[in-house]
């Protein structure tokens, strides 16, 4: 009996398979602060979930496991991927909500200066100029009421309230705190202010944007209020997934962004003399054949394949395999 050692030359490579997941979001039922949640999602997925439209909201409402959330911390809140940019002012009335600092502004010179870092709301002084101011100060305010079409009434409120209270008051009694977009409106409002009596207008710091820095045009707030203390946002699934401000240090469930599911598999080619595995056209052709094969085997349409380059830039590696052959 003789034994021969056979060397089979084969080549192996890593193949990446990306499939577009049915649900673009992944709930994590684990209690983390906003920052911890974001790092976790960043590492494992694509960051915290950006909620960009009503479809996203519906997906979340259908996928969130409320009883799991409730069991963890007694509420139905989960962190989402929005952040607040305190350098940008926005109007209280969502209709004028803008990230565009080129809009009409009438700052007093040297303002806004965010003095002591606590000036997140805005007042109009009796000379018509604006100043950023601490939101917890109690002042008079100017509400406005939409009458019909573009016709609005400006209403001076001679009652000392902090910004939040003034905003709530204006929303309940009129339309909202006043938004000022032209100098003639600014002049009209100035005329309403008694000498020495500054008043809240509807401008404040805190523009919400997606984590990639894109403007978020979709808003789904359960309450619309500036809150200098709470800088993070969470979806509340007891309230149709509407967003709420929350303290970033609170621990709660969270939702990661998973636009694609990725999988890496090792493929092995038995020796095939004629193929040059360094030729991009050959590699491309192999991908096409593999894709067809997967489809033939019933894998759904939604996936893409790509070769993984090794750190040295190579795709295929030669492997030598030992095989025993026994003859008698
Ligand atoms: C405004 O006053 C209300 C009621 O006193 C309080 O709950 C709220 O925190 C205050 N808001 C600000 C911004 O100070
Ligand atoms: C940021 O993310 C949103 C939501 O996923 C997406 O629609 C937008 O195109 C992204 N913007 C950039 C600059 O990548
Ligand atoms: C919220 O942001 C403001 C401005 O950046 C900062 O002064 C404040 O400490 C932050 N609050 C929390 C709770 O992170």
Structural overview:
The chain is α+β, with helices and mostly antiparallel strands. It has 2 domains: 4-20 and 264-327, no CATH class; 36-259, no CATH class. The protein has helices spanning 34-44, 54-63, 66-73, 163-173, 183-192, 280-296, and strands at residues 2-20, 25-32, 77-79, 82-91, 121-124, 130-133, 139-148, 151-161, 176-177, 199-210, 232-236, 242-246, 252-257, 260-270, 303-308, 317-327. The strands form 3 sheets. Strands 4, 5, 6, 7, 8, 9 and 10 form a 7-stranded mixed beta sheet that branches. Strands 2-13-3-11-12 form a 5-stranded mixed beta sheet. The radius of gyration is 30 Å and the shape is elongated. The protein starts with a strand and ends with a strand. It binds 2-acetamido-2-deoxy-beta-D-glucopyranose (3 copies). The site of one 2-acetamido-2-deoxy-beta-D-glucopyranose (NAG) has 6 residues, from loops.
Mean pLDDT: 82
Query: Total strand count, please?
Result: 16
Percent range of helical residues: 10-25%
Low-confidence stretches: 1-9
Beta-strand percentage range: 35-45%
Secondary-structure content class: alpha+beta
* Overall tally of structural domains: 2
Number of helices: 6
Give the ordered list of helices and strands. EEHHHEEEEEEHEHEEEEEHEE
What order do the helices and strands come in, and which of them pair?
Blueprint: E1 2-20, E2 25-32, H1 34-44, H2 54-63, H3 66-73, E3 77-79, E4 82-91, E5 121-124, E6 130-133, E7 139-148, E8 151-161, H4 163-173, E9 176-177, H5 183-192, E10 199-210, E11 232-236, E12 242-246, E13 252-257, E14 260-270, H6 280-296, E15 303-308, E16 317-327
Parallel strand pairs: 3-13, 7-10
Antiparallel strand pairs: 1-14, 1-15, 1-16, 2-13, 3-11, 4-10, 5-6, 5-10, 7-8, 7-9, 11-12
Bound molecules: 2-acetamido-2-deoxy-beta-D-glucopyranose (3 copies).
The site of one 2-acetamido-2-deoxy-beta-D-glucopyranose has 6 residues, from loops.
């Amino acid at each position: 009996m003789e034994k021969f050692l056979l060397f089979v030359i084969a080549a192996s490579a890593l193949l990446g398979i990306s499939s577009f997941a049915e649900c673009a979001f992944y709930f994590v039922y684990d209690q983390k602060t906003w920052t911890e949640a974001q790092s976790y999602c960043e590492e494992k997925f694509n960051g915290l979930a950006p909620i960009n439209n009503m479809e996203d909201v519906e997906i979340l409402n259908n996928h969130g496991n409320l009883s799991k959330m409730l069991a963890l911390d007694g509420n139905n809140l989960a962190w989402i991927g929005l952040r607040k940019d305190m350098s940008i002012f926005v109007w209280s009335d969502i209709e004028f909500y803008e990230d565009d600092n080129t809009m009409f502004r009438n700052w007093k010179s040297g303002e806004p200066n965010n003095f002591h870092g606590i000036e997140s709301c805005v007042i109009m002084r009796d000379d018509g100029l604006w100043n950023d101011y601490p939101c917890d100060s109690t002042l008079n305010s100017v509400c406005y009421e939409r009458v019909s079409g573009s016709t609005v009434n400006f209403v001076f409120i001679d009652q000392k309230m902090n910004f939040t209270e003034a905003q709530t008051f204006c929303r309940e009694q009129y339309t909202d705190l006043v938004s000022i977009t032209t100098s003639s409106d600014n002049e009209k409002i100035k005329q309403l202010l008694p000498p020495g009596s500054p008043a809240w207008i509807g401008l404040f710091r805190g523009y919400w944007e997606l984590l990639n820095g894109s403007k978020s045009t979709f808003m789904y707030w359960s309450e619309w209020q500036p809150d200098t203390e709470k800088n993070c946002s969470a979806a509340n699934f007891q309230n149709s997934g509407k967003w709420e401000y929350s303290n970033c240090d609170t621990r709660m469930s969270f939702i990661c962004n998973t636009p694609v599911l990725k999988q890496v598999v090792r493929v092995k080619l038995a020796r095939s003399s004629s193929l040059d595995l360094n030729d991009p056209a050959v590699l491309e052709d192999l991908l096409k054949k593999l894709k067809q094969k997967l489809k033939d085997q019933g894998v759904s349409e939604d996936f893409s394949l790509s070769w993984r380059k090794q750190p040295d830039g190579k795709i295929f590696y030669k492997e030598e395999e030992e095989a025993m052959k026994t003859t008698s």
